Structure formats: structure tokens, C-alpha cells
Amino acid sequence: MSTRPPPSSAAPGVTAPVRAVSFDAAGTLFHTARPVGELYATVAARHGVDVDAVALHARFRAAFAAAPPLAFPGAPADELRAREKAWWRDLVARVFASARFADFDAFFADLFAFFASPAAWRVDSDAHALLATLRARALTILVVSNFDARIRSVLAALDLAPLVDHVTISSEAGTAKPDPAIFHRALADLVLEPGALVHVGDTVREDLQGAHAAGVRVVLVGGAELAAEAPDALVVTRLGEVANRLAEAR
């Protein structure tokens, strides 16, 4: 069954009214409590391994960039949790390739659980107020993220879950941003046309290009570097600015 939404019924040149707003998760609604390298080093130290946090951070970025999408098309639903964990275990093993753990599996289990807890994350200072404002306008709130099932425990722990109506994650959708199919899936789940959705994120490739390929307008959140990378996009410096800029999304 296709997840592609129906074509827009809006007349040519007419922008459909916004009915829903989707958000990227990590990097937009919430952020790591400290740089990933520091968090990895902290958990590794609990298992007797001392690794430089800056070097770990660089290795994580390289391994994450080289990893396949966190998506498992065609996988049975009852296998998804195991596949998510295996995906992350492979990535973490590459990050710590030169380290020697007495029990790598015990370390990885600790690290995997840590990133499902609020200790690993901090909610964006504008997130709660923004989502409450959008919900007060009767807008549907979605999360569309290249994440795994732990996102639900993170959203709950950060008190964001009550403000979110629907979650679409790559590991369950079988496709990851920038593939527009993940947006098609979210739109189909909520019976929305692309023109009725605005997506909010912090990356050009995954968020801007992925959403645009699905016919979805975008607001990016970031600084001057992001604005220079996407000169034709609407870029705001704070998440809290989104509420008053939705009509300008492009």
C-alpha cells in the first residue's frame, strides 16, 4: 500500500493553510546534554576505559556520517528493536575500535540505556512554550526523525510527549531523511496534504532537502553558518521564533 499522500487541491500559486507542524528531534526539540564524545567517554570510564572525549567526538561524527540509514525496509515489526540495537552496536564498535573493554557488551548495554534516559539530553529552552502555542492554535504536532524507538522514552522524560500528537521515526518507517518517503509516511498517517505541513529542523540535507522533495515547506533553526549553507531557506536563530514565522516557511 502506498504511503504517498494525495496531490494538493490548492489552486496553482495559492499556499495551503498550515494544519500541522513536524519537528526533527535531536538537534531541534532537544539536544545532547554535553557533546557526544564527552557522554561516550563518561560511560566508558564506568567500564574502566579512559578515552579522550574530543577524539571520541570526532570518531563518532565520522562513524555516524558513514553509517547506513537507521531504517530497515521490509523488516518484521517484531525484529525492529533488535535491529535498532544492532545498528547502534556496530556504530559504537567503530567509534571504540582501538579501546579494550573487559566486557564490550556490558558497556554497550549501559550506553544504549543511557541515551534512552533524560540524563543524556536537555530540552531546548523554547520547546515547551512553542509546542503549547502551536497546539493552542489547533495545529497538529508531529515528530519526524531519524531515530529509534527510544525517542518515546526521551520525549516522555523531557515532558514533550503530551505536546506531540504523532511520531514517525526512520527505524519504524523503513526509510530515513532525506528520503521524502518518511515525510510521505507521516502525511499519510495523518491524512494530510504536503502543503498543509511545515517541517522544522536543523540540517540542510535531511530536513530542508528531504522535506522539499516531499513538497513540504521548511523552517530551519540555526546560526549564520546554517543560513549561509541554505541562503534561500527561512532560517531562524531560536526555536521560539517558529510560531510567528510559519506563514513565511518555504
What class do helices, strands and sheet pairing give? alpha/beta
Q: Mean pLDDT, rounded to whole units?
A: 94
Query: What's the CATH H-level homologous superfamily of the largest domain?
Result: HAD superfamily/HAD-like
Describe the sheet with the most strands: 6 strands, parallel
Q: In what range is the share of β-strand residues? A: 5-15%
* CATH fold title of the largest domain: Rossmann fold
Number of helices: 10
**Residue runs with pLDDT of under 50 for 5 or more positions:** 1-14
- Residues in helices, as a percent range: 25-40%
Question: What can you tell me about this protein's structure?
Answer:
The protein has 250 residues and is α/β, with parallel strands linked by helices. It folds into two domains: 20-29 and 124-248, 3-Layer(aba) Sandwich (Rossmann fold); 32-120, Haloacid dehalogenase-like hydrolase (DNA polymerase, domain 1, Orthogonal Bundle), CATH 1.10.150.720. It has ten helices and eight strands. It has a six-stranded parallel sheet with strand order 5-4-1-6-7-8. A two-stranded antiparallel sheet has the order 2-3. Strand 6 (197-201), helix 9 and strand 7 form a beta-alpha-beta unit. The longest helix has 16 residues, at 80-95.
